[in-house]
Specification:
Keywords: Cell membrane, Membrane, Transmembrane, Transmembrane helix. This is ATP synthase subunit I. It is found in: Cell membrane. α1 packs antiparallel against α2. By secondary structure, the chain is mostly helical. The longest helix has 29 residues. Helix content is 80%, strand content 0%.
Amino acid sequence: MLLGGLIALLANVYFAFKAFRYFGARSARAIVQSFWAGEMGKLILTAALFALVFVAVKPLQPLALFTGYLLVLGTGASALLLLKNNPKH
């Protein structure tokens, strides 16, 4: 489970660093490009990390790997739902 969670965490950290480098109305084009690059890099990094784990870790329990991955993704999604339902003034 830990490896699946780390894959999700590392890929999302990469996306956050790549996507949120620019801000402000004058850099709208750079913002869109950085989000695109961040998402593509995140997908590639996720695939590469899964491939690495499947090749390098023996014995591997795929169910535990994917459960950890989905739990980390679900945590972020549920945090967004909690913030939506409980906004600060």
